[in-house]
Design goal:
alpha+beta, Nucleotidyltransferase, domain 5, seven-stranded mixed beta sheet, six-stranded mixed beta sheet
Length: 495
């Protein structure tokens, strides 16, 4: 069996797959979110580890996997989130700074004004934005007492969530090329930490960063009962950031194939082949995965808040008790009646990249109800995806013929049909919604020799297909009004 650890932004999921890559066991738990100041988002790294370990054990128990049954482990994770810990004690030295955290927006502005974005763009494929890891590490170095000295002499190390879990499982300080490519410290063309970028972001000590390995291969073996009795010595054989894992899990192994993962945020990735793509404004160039000496790249559009908007309706406003309610509420209306919700709760990502945008609801009247708000949240998920895909299509060699979809929101049939309608192409929904975890399992299975790349490419796994039914006039009108609403949200925090 293969254990896939999917450590996400709001919870940890573990799936166990059998020799035919069929689901044999699963478990999931949420963990606490911390918001110490407006725009700041933190996680307790110790809480993440304990939650993930507990869920892994539950999934293994659900699958009936005893000692000797587990062949390998794959890890996929929320990207860009930064942990810092003492490598001797294994104790976190500060809460993890989450990818959603915007505290370094002013620092990014400062670097942009100084003309440093072209360097960042050329080397890392990314844009100067607090979304990525580099300014988070710089902030920690400057604001945690004694941390710079500890990092300089080896008593503090940094890593994304995958490397934190690898350390807790194996004692090794390692990451893969996909996660390294999201730090803004890694030269994706040369495949190494970049000294000029390390210097730019507060002189990050190279030795404090993890060793970078291909996505497929051994990262270490489980030790000291980290996964309970009977699983010591099991190798971690595959790692990729969540969106790259989903691209792999969707079988997008050929240049030009693309997918969208609907999670806390939504991320559209298109396989770009063996050369670093030239990303236009609003899009990113990133590493899709590494296998041996070969690196595959992707174009990416990153949307920061999609599923998190529905979670906010539930937890922040209390107008729904469960996310599933939104489907019936949206379907109860014949139209949106002019109500639009721009969920820029942590700024806007692709194709706008505006950290100063803020959440905005427009078009409300005395006749507006919670159904309008729920529908507007779902429409915003789809309309943000339209913006991202259209930006990608403008530079792609050909438009997407279909969009492969995965993630929790694909269970919402109303949303998937609306997505097909406003995008104007079919939506192919993956059989397994947790395609990030499937991708991690497939990477680990290939790394362990259980499967081949051809096996992955040949998998069939479409659960549902939605064909567009909306006319062009209605589609264009919705998109135009949506973009007018986005204009109201942009730059709000700047006054």
């Amino acid at each position: 069996m293969i254990l896939a650890i999917d450590q996400g932004t709001t919870g940890s999921t573990c799936l166990v797959f059998d020799a035919e890559a069929q689901l044999a066991g699963r478990a999931y738990r949420e963990f606490e979110q911390h918001f110490p100041k407006p725009g700041w988002v933190e996680h307790d790294a110790g809480d993440i580890w304990e939650t993930t370990r507990a869920v892994a054990l539950e999934a293994l128990d659900d699958a009936g996997a005893g000692g000797g049954d587990l062949q390998a482990i794959g890890i996929t994770n929320q990207r860009e989130t930064v942990c810092v810990w003492d490598p001797a004690s294994g104790e976190p030295l500060h809460r993890a700074l989450v990818w959603q955290d915007r505290r370094t927006a002013a620092r990014c502005d400062e670097l942009r004004a100084a003309g440093r974005e072209p360097l960042v763009r050329t080397r890392s494929g990314l844009v100067l934005d607090p979304y990525f890891s580099a300014t988070k590490i710089e902030w920690l170095l400057e604001n945690v007492d004694g941390l710079r000295e500890r990092a300089a002499d080896g008593r503090a190390v940094f890593g994304t969530i995958d490397s934190w879990l690898v350390f807790k499982l194996t004692g090794e300080h390692r990451t893969d090329v996909t996660n390294a490519s999201r730090t803004m410290l890694y030269d994706i063309g040369r495949g190494e930490w970049d000294d000029e970028l390390l210097g730019l972001f507060g002189d990050v000590p190279r030795a404090s960063l993890p060793e970078v390995l291909p996505s497929i291969g051994e990262f270490g073996v489980v030790r000291d009962g980290a996964l309970g009795a009977g699983h010591d010595g099991v190798p971690i054989c595959g790692i990729a950031g969540d969106q790259q894992a989903a691209l792999y899990g969707q079988g997008c192994l050929v240049k030009g194939l693309g997918k969208n993962t609907y999670g806390t945020g939504s991320f559209v990735l298109m396989n770009s082949g063996d050369s670093v793509p030239t990303a236009p404004p609003g899009l990113l160039a990133t590493v899709a995965w590494g296998i041996g000496n070969r690196t595959v790249y992707a174009l990416e559009a990153a949307i920061f808040v999609t599923g998190a908007a529905v979670q906010w309706l539930r937890d922040g406003l209390g107008i729904i008790a469960a996310a599933a309610e939104t489907e019936q509420l949206a379907a109860s209306l014949n139209s949106n009646d002019g109500v639009y919700f721009v969920p820029a709760l942590t700024g806007l990502g692709s194709p706008h990249w505006d950290p100063y945008a803020r959440g905005t609801i427009v078009g409300l009247t005395r006749g507006s109800t919670r159904a309008h708000i729920a529908r507007a949240a779902l429409e915003a998920i789809a309309l943000q995806t339209v913006d991202a895909v259209q930006a990608m299509e403008r530079v792609a060699e050909q438009p997407l013929d279909e969009l492969r979809a995965d993630g929790g929101a694909t269970a919402n049939a109303w949303l998937m049909q609306f997505q097909a309608d406003v995008l104007g192409v079919p939506i192919a929904v993956a059989e397994i919604a947790e395609t990030t975890a499937l991708g991690a399992a497939l990477l680990a299975g290939v790394g362990a020799g259980a499967w081949t790349q051809a096996d992955v490419a040949g998998r069939e796994g479409e659960r549902a297909r939605y064909e567009p039914r909306m006319g062009d006039a209605e589609r264009y009108a919705l998109i135009d009004e949506w973009r007018r609403a986005v204009g109201r949200a942009r730059g709000w925090a700047q006054g």
